[in-house]
Amino acid sequence: MSQTHHPFPPLPDYSDAERIARAKAAYEQLKTRHSCRDFSDAPVPREVIEHAIRAAGTAPNGANHQPWHFAVIHSPEKKRALREAAEAEERRFYGADGDAPKASAEWLGALAPIGTDASKPFLETAPWLIVCFAQRTGGIAEDGETQNYYVNESVGIACGMLIATLHDAGLATLTHTPSPMGFLRDLCGRPKNEKPLMIIVAGLPGENATVPEHAVKKKPLEQIASWL
Ligand SMILES: Cc1cc2nc3c(=O)[nH]c(=O)nc-3n(C[C@H](O)[C@H](O)[C@H](O)COP(=O)(O)O)c2cc1C
Fold first, then answer.
1. Strand partners for 71
2. Which of 58, 119, 128, 139 has its CA 20 to 30 A from that of 95?
3. Which of ligand 1's atoms lies nearest the C-alpha of 215?
4. pLDDT of the residue at 159
5. Does pTM top 0.90 for this prediction?
6. Which runs of consecutive H residues, i.e. helices, occur in the chain?
7. 120 within ligand 1 shell (Cβ under 6 A)
8. Could you tell me if the CB of 119 is within 6 A of ligand 1?
9. Mean of pLDDT over the chain
10. What is the CATH number of the domain that holds 57?
11. How confident is the model over 158-217, as pLDDT tens digits?
12. 201 touches 123 (CB < 8 A)
């Protein structure tokens, strides 16, 4: 295995004041992101999604095995199939067909302030559905066997970078996790060593899109950080 190392890429020589201003600006921009559950069908160029996935693919990850795959769904037929399968799972999850809900009362209680239910029309209206897969094995060569490391952590970071890039491009997103999600592997034609982690829905917000009050309340710095 090659041990070649490259010089660390040059970073901009900002003053402290510039660094503070840039970090603040990044925060101000990121805090305008909110999950969207009502999308318009306005088209968004594929190139935006391509760049966002390239950005996700630069994420730090266990041993640089890059244990992710992004299956991008755009065709109306595939979107309909995904919506139908997701809503079937969601109806069982919420107990929408009259059976006992699969979700615990505690889980349903936690979701109540967000106001979600089994109906997911945005899975057909939004232009892009990015199904994010975690590769349990495969290594860089994707041989299906080599052990991967810190898979969920790595793919979680990549998905965060994907969402941040889409937001920066002026798109709305939703992290959607129908429960369970196993059906996504067949629907996307992915191998058994891959586990679907989430769907990132991307597009422009619909006219009636709202943000639940619950989602606006973010913990303050004093609560989420300690300084030792
Ligand atoms: C791993 C994960 C799974 C999520 N699953 C769903 C989902 O299935 N449906 C949904 O409407 N929102 C889902 N969300 C979105 C959260 O409800 C949302 O991020 C949270 O309420 C905070 O709101 P905000 O994104 O507007 O800041 C999910 C978020 C994450 C990170």
1. 131
2. 128
3. 23
4. 98
5. yes
6. 16-30, 46-56, 76-94, 105-111, 122-125, 151-168, 183-188, 213-216, 221-224
7. no
8. no
9. 97
10. 3.40.109.10
11. 999 999 999 999 999 999 999 899 999 999 999 999 999 999 999 999 999 999 999 999
12. yes
Total domains present in the chain: 1
pLDDT digits 0-9 by tens, 26-61: 999 999 999 999 999 999 999 999 999 999 999 999
Q: Does 169 reside within a domain?
A: yes
Residue 30 domain-assigned (yes or no): no
Q: Cα 70 from chain centroid?
A: 10
Geometric angle at alpha carbon 153, from 129 and 44, rounded to 5°: 20
pLDDT confidence tier of residue 87, bands split at 50, 70 and 90: very high
| Any domain includes 213 | no
CA of 227 to the centre of ligand 1 (A): 28
Substitution candidate for ligand 1 out of 33, 35, 82, 89 with most atoms within 8 A of CB: 35
- What does the alpha-carbon distance between residue 217 and residue 113 come to, in Å, rounded to a whole number? 12
Q: How far apart are CA 17 and CA 210, in angstroms?
A: 36
Probe ligand 1: pick from 175, 184, 217, 224, max atoms within 8 Å of CB? 175
Mutate which of 177, 195, 199, 224 to test ligand 1's pocket (most atoms within 8 Å of Cβ)? 177
Domain that holds residue 151: 36-207
The full length of the chain comes to 228
Asked if residue 56 belongs to a domain, the reply is yes
